[in-house]
What does this fold into?
Amino acid sequence: MISLDIIDEPLIEFGYAGTHQEQRAGLTEHGPADIEMDDRLEEIRVGIVGPAEDISELQQYLRNCAAGVNGKKTELTTLFPDFPGFTPKRGFRCKLALPAGGRRVMSAQALAAIGDAHTEVDQIQIGVERCATEVRAAVSRAPLDVVLVIRPPGVPEGVPHGASKGANFHDLLKAELITTPQPIQIIRPRTWRGGKTVEDPASRAWNLFTALYYKAGGKPWRLRRERSAFSRLYIGISFKHSGASDQLFATVAQVFNELGDGVIVRGAFAEKSDVDLQPHLAREDAHTLLTDALARYRQEHGTAPAAVTVHKTSDYSAAELAGFQDAATAAQLHSCELIWLTGSDNAMLVRGPNYYPPLRGTFLTLDEHEHLLYTHGSIPFYKTYPGLYVPRPLGVRPRAVERPVAEIASEILELTKLNWNRARLDGRLPITLLTAQRVGDILRHVDSSVTPAPRYANYM
It folds into this structure.
């Protein structure tokens, strides 16, 4: 039953219903997906927290990028396109605003306290406390949509898992500010200064301004949907160890519509099975998870979805299958698809005779229960493989599906394009699991008594 297919690159939608297979090319040609919406942004107000000299440099860098950035000089023009800018008439069709009241300079005393810390964990903790204080001051003094936080000098990105549960500046600062409505974007000086270890200037501008636009509430692009298609709720489920008790808990990302709107929730605690050594929910908890997700969808749309697709990072136990199916039956859903997506697979493919990486969209069926999908691979539109390492496929394990698995695989490819931190065709995970996993990294540092921000933007 082994078979091999190449799935066409799915189209996504931009302004004025324009479509393209690639994020940057589509946005340059058609503008952002929300360009015709009544409540779209006319400007985004960005605050900055960091050392005085860095703030001055970063402000100038942002203004320069907003005027446009030339792409890398290479024959691979589709891989390294110009950044069209950030103005009312070009690029994101939006204005960049840097309110004076939104700038918060970290004092010499605060920076010295970081340098005087005895351990890297202490440096991270002090850096988080000082940065969080300044972010709160910035949003209280100026109307801001998003705040750029320059990682202070002397603060490491993170320390190994053996120390303080893997203390990480990004995750701990996001956790500390998880109830602050305005999202933050952490930035390192090398992003604007450049260097051997960073991407070309235009690629950096694309990634940064796409993230800022989305975090401020904009919609850069959207999934393309036929009018006759069922309304569908996408759910991603991942598992993380709690920072306090070391228990496993589920983190859930719910994608409500083709714009990628959704909410984040903290699920129930899970147990690792002695049989397959994977985390699983109890039947009642699986039932509650889907029931709550449908209730949130109804609050958003005023009606229930016709179909649900669940992506999970572990297999489905009999109890989970029963719990999800019970909730789907009670809600009278047309279908409830349950899919296990593995992070990697032992089987790999190469393209001879020169052993090129497989094409993105390569879909290998081993049997009816086991499939491989290359979401990362060689891309004809770019005329190259844009990665540094040998690509590994996702394992697609359908456990309860009604559509052809190839159609589900195409949908997974499409969902990899809703990564607002990366504006090109090299996303590996669908937004469902990418967000659920990132959420878990942050929420394990948040006490269960705290109600965290529901928007994706606060976890990116």
